[in-house]
Amino acid sequence: MSKYWSKLAARLEPYVPGEQLKDKKYIKLNTNENPYPPSPRVIEAIKAAADSRLKLYPDPLAADLKETLAEYYGVKSSQVFTGNGSDEVLAFCFMAFFNSDEEALFPDITYSFYPVYANIFNTKYREVPLNDDFSIPVEKFYNSEGGVIIPNPNAPTARALSHDDIEKIIINNRDKVVIIDEAYVDFGADSVVDLIGKYDNLLVVQTMSKSRCLAGLRIGWAMGQEELIEGLTRIKDCINSYTLDRLALAGAEEAIKEDEYFQATRKKIMTTRERIIPELEKLGFKVIPSKSNFIFISHVKVKAEKIFLRLKEEGVLVRYFNKPRIDNYLRVSIGTDLEMDTMIKKLEQIL
Amino acid sequence: MSKYWSKLAARLEPYVPGEQLKDKKYIKLNTNENPYPPSPRVIEAIKAAADSRLKLYPDPLAADLKETLAEYYGVKSSQVFTGNGSDEVLAFCFMAFFNSDEEALFPDITYSFYPVYANIFNTKYREVPLNDDFSIPVEKFYNSEGGVIIPNPNAPTARALSHDDIEKIIINNRDKVVIIDEAYVDFGADSVVDLIGKYDNLLVVQTMSKSRCLAGLRIGWAMGQEELIEGLTRIKDCINSYTLDRLALAGAEEAIKEDEYFQATRKKIMTTRERIIPELEKLGFKVIPSKSNFIFISHVKVKAEKIFLRLKEEGVLVRYFNKPRIDNYLRVSIGTDLEMDTMIKKLEQIL
């Protein structure tokens, strides 16, 4: 606490990202990064952009990247907003669409940044409890006072909502914005990008940090009809004209154009996921159905925190949340086959 | 206007950056970029960082870059905060240190992003009128209710404050934060980084977009005692854990280490500036004394807006602000010698 802090700075409770330990070499299954490197074409595009043009500001509109994303997803480029990771895009969403006197809704177990955004931007909100199996109680998101934000698949549970259920939530909130955070959608869930033309209250947020193997490049984007995109742009233009540097813009554009690599990589992750789930079940784990690049698991006998600490000792980092309802679960990112086999061997020893 | 926008989004008046025209090849003297490319060593460092590690998140603490900056500027690494351009750092400053019920002070003619930040983050503020010669009325910044922010040199006037005058402002605001925005300090003004150890209410903000030739990389930072840095970190960690991507971190670190290139480049700019000022005066321009990589000029006979439009037709972009007190001035970035000579030839034709 400092006398120099604003009232805002003084009351904040910042988000804590997953550990980035450097004391030894870990198998890193704790921040949902992709275990595969970005496509060589992306690396080449970045290197080609690293030249004297770095003396000039990047395009504040990110027009080329928006055009590329729009073409790929079948929307107009005026229906795309880009930002410094989906975290920045989500932060701007809270500022652009939610209010301090109308209750926005999100699940009680979800991306733990949402309540942090709500707190800093003074959003009124209510956390809707998930069902006991961590599925989303769809009807409880109808007729929100101030809007809705839901990740699909949800994090850290990995459970997905059906396309129909999301459409129901959109239809039953026609005067408020429904934000679907599709950070993990490419690992088996249904995107609702196809509904953007149909509903002007739908905003879909995506990222290159997971399925595009580019967590280190900080690229996120939102897609929705023009009024929503303009709302986000108004916020951005009051904070930072250029949030994506020239190298990130170049790499991101190529990552979208390089579809073959993307398809192959996400399929590898899904294949590994499906292969290891029965192995974990054999070891006594309950595994929540996953459509993501991570799984949410709980052991019938051994406490999650104990397994978390023992795995860390053994050089395997997974994520443990000391929070009500999920404090006996572990979130485990899907790594390479070798990484997952090593983890399973370690688990066999521990259990 | 949209029914989906928050009250905040609806009331905003976004900042408008300098034009980035693409219809033809321009001599770009309108956004204060550096006319010289970044050092080849910086380009190499970026290329070396463009590899499979991009699949991993960047260091959220930017520890290596902070260490490099701290060593260069003679502060501790705990006294450095890094962000996505100084714009993002400045935005976080408004959130971290200013309040809605205590009046912060900045000049009436200054970086036009300040009132935009104040508006979006609900800061109470008062614009202190500059003297008629655009110098800063130092004593009018004493005993502020809510803090002070001043660019040194000021923009778009290019005038610098003396080290002594800044120290007086700091001393006369001991209970409030004094932010000195040193975006342009490397072109001849005195930095007050040396006062950080002495005053815990001083925060100095700098950027790589001007003197380090890296506008395209989006690197800014703040230096101050630990309490102020912690205030900024609290804000950042509520919005975006990782604001600098891996390539920007690598390039920025090398840009600080490569001091020889930096010294040579900034001297070239200052030499060109001093050379062309008498030439402009010969053409009938009044030139405000400049310690920056731009000059603020006004013609005795021809209106600034007319010169601005004619130069644009001739392929030379400068910045014109249609605002009270400065609507007969042009802000002209210092380009290469060739660019400046071309501009002067065009001006001779126009006048």
Helices and strands in order, then pairings?
Two copies of one chain form a homodimer.
Chain A: H1 7-11, E1 27-28, H2 40-49, H3 63-73, E2 80-83, H4 85-97, E3 104-107, H5 113-120, E4 125-128, E5 148-151, H6 163-171, E6 178-181, E7 202-207, E8 220-224, H7 226-236, H8 246-257, H9 259-282, E9 285-287, E10 294-299, H10 304-313, E11 316-317, E12 319-320, E13 330-333, H11 337-350
3D architecture notes:
- Two copies of one chain form a homodimer.
- Chain A is an alpha/beta fold.
- Chain A folds into two domains: 122 residues, Aspartate Aminotransferase, domain 1 (Alpha-Beta Complex); 219 residues, 3-Layer(aba) Sandwich (Aspartate Aminotransferase, domain 2).
- Chain A is 36% helix and 14% strand.
- Chain A has eleven helices and 13 strands.
- In chain A, the strands form four sheets. In chain A, strands 2-8-7-6-5 form a five-stranded mixed β-sheet, with helices on both faces. A four-stranded antiparallel β-sheet of chain A has the order 9-10-13-12, with helices on one face. A two-stranded parallel sheet of chain A has the order 1-11.
- In chain A, helix 5 links the parallel strand 3 and strand 4.
- In chain A, helix 2 packs antiparallel against helix 8 and helix 4 packs across helix 7.
- The first copy, chain A, is globular, with a radius of gyration of 20 Å.
- Chains A and B meet through helix 1, helix 2, helix 4, helix 5 and helix 7 of A and helix 1, helix 2, helix 4, helix 5 and helix 7 of B.
